[in-house]
Amino acid sequence: MIKVGIVGGTGYTGVELLRILANHPEVRVDVITSRSEEGIRIADMYPNLRGHYDLAFTVPDVERLADCDAVFFATPHGVAMSMAPELVERGVKVIDLGADFRIKDLELWSRWYGMEHTAPELAAEAVYGLPEVNREQIRNARMIACPGCYPTAVQLGYLPLIENALVDHRRLIADCKSGVSGAGRGANVGSLLCEASESFKAYGAAGHRHLPEIKQGLGVAAGRPVGLTFVPHLTPMIRGIHATLYSVLKDPTDGLQALFEERYADEPFVDVMPAGSHPETRSVKGANVCRISVVRPQDDDTVVVLSVIDNLVKGAAGQAVQNLNILFGLEETAGLGIVALMP
């Protein structure tokens, strides 16, 4: 049985990790931490987990976490890089759901996140945990940087086109929408029901922290820097991401559906929908699945990819568990056979 710890277990990604791992046949959660909720039992904070855990939140302690085989960080940026180096040196596998290790250019990271990176050597070693791209590197990693939610939906949607150099890589457009859970569980006026309901707005149009992460991933796939316009939007729903991705084909082709189906044929958590489909966020709610469809409107040179995920599952906790499974040589789907909730 693999013993895991979760640092920052009171947020939405933390409780999703607990929900998923409660049904994992090979994993036991030994430590759950929160400075603000020390002593409170998991089931008292999250009654949906009653009967699944007999643990209370404790203050993060490296000595106790070092007894785990793996530790998840479901924390704001700046936390993982302060604790992860010592855990890694003591033989613990670390999976960071935050942003500390996603971007390789640490000067660029510091500009977007407003602080100096304190673990540059570990950042250089960290493997970007998008299994559909880096599965082999993940198997041997000590430190995994779990991708962000928007970057997951956008990269999976664009990869078949970018990898095959079918589109103009200089002029990519990602028009993305997210539910309010993407803002986290902390008190925030903009996330209140009365503020977000019956409304729809863009944010971060001039620049969003996920932009350099997306450009980095697509640039690796393209073998050169890409040009990307990324505009996220807040929608009046709790969870889900819908990415509408636009690009211009170099040579119009009718083989896009087959291209996408072939690229993801062996991927357990990417579902290429039949031609003409319009995937819905509700079809992935609670599940570790990305559903994709590809369209050429009016058979012109513009290609539109529609990509949907649950931001808390394939965009966070589910993908983290997928990485854990690969890392420890388990069945990649272990604990992740969750059917989406409908309605």
UniProtKB/TrEMBL annotation:
GO terms for cellular component: cytoplasm. InterPro entries: AGPR (IPR050085), AGPR_dimerisation_dom (IPR058924), AGPR_type-1 (IPR000706), NAD(P)-bd_dom_sf (IPR036291), Semialdehyde_DH_NAD-bd (IPR000534). It is an enzyme of class 1 (oxidoreductase). Pathway: Amino-acid biosynthesis; L-arginine biosynthesis; N(2)-acetyl-L-ornithine from L-glutamate: step 3/4. One of its GO terms (molecular function) is NAD binding. Its main location: cytoplasm. It catalyses: N-acetyl-L-glutamate 5-semialdehyde + phosphate + NADP(+) = N-acetyl-L-glutamyl 5-phosphate + NADPH + H(+). GO terms for biological process: L-arginine biosynthetic process. The active site is at C149. Keywords: Amino-acid biosynthesis, Arginine biosynthesis, Cytoplasm, NADP, Oxidoreductase. It is found in: Cytoplasm. Residues 3-141 form the Semialdehyde dehydrogenase NAD-binding domain. Its EC number is 1.2.1.38. CDD domains: AGPR_1_C, AGPR_1_N. Pfam families: Semialdhyde_dh, Semialdhyde_dhC_1. Catalyzes the NADPH-dependent reduction of N-acetyl-5-glutamyl phosphate to yield N-acetyl-L-glutamate 5-semialdehyde. Belongs to the NAGSA dehydrogenase family. Type 1 subfamily. NCBIfam families: argC. This is N-acetyl-gamma-glutamyl-phosphate reductase.
